[in-house]
Amino acid sequence: MVEMSREEFEAAVAEGLDQVPRELTRLMDNVVVLVEDDAPADDPELLGLYEGVPLTERGEAWAAGSLPDRITVYRHPTLAICDSVDDVAEEVAVTVVHEIAHHFGIDDDRLHELGWD
């Protein structure tokens, strides 16, 4: 397990976001990226979670009063599976891309096919 402060982990998440091509981030709509220490109790090993309505499923009435979609990256589960700060940076980058893909309507099966496990 790697020791990393919340501030250091948040910086790693920001760096992971910076690695996403601008062409994609410009297409993201109404999304907030958050860091939480612990994953939900029913899935304590979860590294990240997308909550919202994917772009591919939004209709005309979607925007009326809609809260932002949420991408949450979980610090403790990520640190638990990593052996170094470099591992954390890599795992966070993969998690960020994985959850952004869900925002674009790409499901886990397709991500697996593309090698983004």
Automatic annotation (TrEMBL):
Name of the protein this chain belongs to: Putative Zn-dependent protease with MMP-like domain
GO BP, sorted A to Z: proteolysis
A Pfam family annotated for this UniProt entry: Zincin_1
InterPro entries assigned to the protein according to its UniProt record, in alphabetical order: Zincin_1 (IPR010428), Zincin_1_sf (IPR038555)
Superkingdom: Bacteria
Any one GO MF annotation of this record: peptidase activity
CDD domains: MMP_ACEL2062
